[in-house]
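Many introductory courses stop at the sequence. We go one step further.
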Amino acid sequence: MRFFLKKADRILKRSDFVELTRVGRRVYSGVFMAVVAPNRAGRPRLGVTVTRKVGPAVQRNRIKRLVREVFRLHRQKVKLDGDINVIARSGAARLTNHDLRQAIEELFESVPRQIGG
């Protein structure tokens, strides 16, 4: 079992984000939204989007770190070979780290259920 994220495990190109937004299905969970679609990589890939509406850079970076950390630790629970773009909504910056972790874990658990995977 691997506990690190390779570059291939992340969505990095703008074109991939645009395509995912175009064809993906949206899953909502509290202060997060996920856009999910199948990919050809054969494993789950993660993208994280946190806009300036959420808060200043320190808070946005904290949220991105926590999303990547939860994905890294719970990758085996995400029973989906597809791309997942987690988008933080405006209330995310006000939550504690513990509450953010719980919200992210709930989102990752609900993704396969919502899209029938």
